[in-house]
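Need a sequence for this fold. Nothing fancy.
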């Protein structure tokens, strides 16, 4: 899908916030150091910031979709304190094997499939070829590549363990702030 706008797609758990397993309440949420600054830099460089997050905790019945939306509203309020914002959130509440009820399905939105990215591209007129994905898992990297984006792996969250599996050409950065600076450098934008 081609359109006019550049975006940076961000994985959530392990990339924006510290990986703690099925985070869904405000008291569990903790930004990876530098994450608000990274998002503010992306905002300032003119990128759409789109969070794309697999939420198998919904599929497993640990919490509902509204809990995810509440956490994202909390995240928005915390980011606003640093002058940063997320343009949109896309979540996959499904799991093909561990889901309960209607959430146990094979879907096109669960990363490594690119459904959340292509959906955002349609909804927001995003040029995927001019966009980036930053995440801490191979499933993030693969979703970005499948959508036609440039993917970057961060070493926070599961990134250290995933690093040996990264294909040639995928950039590896210490964290979201380092990855953001690399994206801005690649684009030739000043920070």
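Here you go.
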């Amino acid at each position: 899908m081609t359109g006019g706008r550049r975006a940076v797609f961000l994985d959530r758990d392990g990339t924006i916030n510290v990986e703690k397993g099925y985070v869904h309440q405000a008291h569990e949420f903790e930004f990876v150091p530098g994450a608000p600054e990274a998002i503010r830099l992306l905002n300032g460089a003119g990128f759409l910031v789109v969070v794309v997050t697999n939420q198998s905790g919904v599929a497993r019945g640990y919490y509902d979709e509204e809990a995810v939306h509440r956490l994202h509203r909390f995240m928005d309020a915390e980011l606003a304190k640093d002058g940063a914002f997320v343009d949109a959130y896309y979540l996959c509440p499904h799991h093909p094997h561990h889901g309960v009820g209607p959430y146990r399905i094979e879907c096109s939105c669960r990363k490594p499939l690119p459904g959340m990215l292509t959906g955002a591209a349609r909804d927001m007129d995003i040029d995927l070829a001019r966009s980036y994905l930053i995440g801490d898992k191979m499933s993030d990297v693969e979703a970005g590549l499948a959508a036609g984006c440039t993917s970057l792996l961060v070493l926070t969250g599961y990134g250290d363990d995933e690093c040996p599996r990264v294909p040639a050409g995928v950039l590896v950065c210490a964290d979201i702030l380092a990855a953001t600076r690399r994206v801005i450098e690649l684009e030739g934008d000043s920070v």
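For context: The chain has one domain: 7-127+154-187.
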